[in-house]
Amino acid sequence: MKNRISQLRVERAWTQADLAQRVSVSRQTINALETGKFDPSLPLAFRIARLFNRTIEEVFLDDQ
Amino acid sequence: MQARQETGGYRDSNRATFRFFLWTLAWLLTLALARFGPGLLWDEQQEVASWVAVAANLVVGIGWIVAFARYLKAIDELQRKIQQDALLVTLGVAWVGGFGYVVADHAELVTGDINIAVFPVLMSVVYLVAFVFGYFRYR
Questions:
Q1: Is A29 exposed, middle or buried, given 0-12, 13-18 or 19+ CB atoms closer than 10 A?
Q2: Highest mean pLDDT range out of A55-64, B31-40, B62-71?
Q3: Quick one: which H or E segment has residue B21?
Q4: Cα–Cα distance between A26 and A19 in angstroms, integer?
Q5: What one-character DSSP code corresponds to residue A3?
Q6: CATH number at residue A10
Q7: How many domains does chain A have?
Q8: Which domain, by its residues, includes A19?
Q9: Do the domain assignments include residue A31?
Q10: What is the arithmetic mean of pLDDT over A21-37?
Q11: What pTM, to 2 d.p., does this model score?
Q12: Do B77 and A41 make contact, defined as CB atoms within 8 angstroms?
């Protein structure tokens, strides 16, 4: 599943570590999400979308 | 739908990891005590001392299991997936390898006896390799 996490994060001048701290996960998890190696659970996806003031659909893109 | 780790989750996971490390250390120490204590620290004929050492190892082992469960709950979802994959491979190898050995032994295809201690050591090595593989896979 593609996502816009990296773009939204860079727009706010946050590092991966900053974002990781804000959503209470490890930096490795943010990196794996941004590179598309790992899909988040629904609670984490909501947390990330809420942090960016977006809907889930605006952050996570269905690539099928 | 409320995220359990919304606040302080990462800090909690570090604390749970440290506790799990301490329990692992304690379990290894009691294991060493139960294994090398008889003969080294007390006379092998003193069965009570040996039973106490074995009991201590089992009790600390239960604590280790609880600490591991808490650790798995505390870590974030990617770390949990890495652990889950490593445990899956370990269980699979133990199951397939263990039963493979049993049937081969039953068919008298195995000539020598394998020390039972090899089994947990093999599981530990498989788990470590699978964990490191998972860690680098998602790095």
A1: buried
A2: B62-71
A3: helix B9-40
A4: 9
A5: E
A6: 1.10.260.40
A7: 1
A8: 2-53
A9: yes
A10: 94
A11: 0.82
A12: yes
Residue B139 pLDDT > 50: yes
R_g (Cα) of chain A, nearest Å? 10
First to last CA, chain A: 8
d(C-alpha B110, C-alpha A4), whole Å? 57
With bands split at pLDDT 50, 70 and 90, how would you rate the model's confidence at B116? confident
Q: Choose from A22, A24, A34 for mutation: most chain B CBs within 10 A.
A: A24
**A18 contacts in B (CB within 8 Å)?**
none
pLDDT band at B10 (very low <50, low <70, confident <90, very high): low
**What is the identity of the amino acid at A35?**
T
CB contacts of B78 in chain A (<8 Å) are 25-26, 28-29, 32, 38
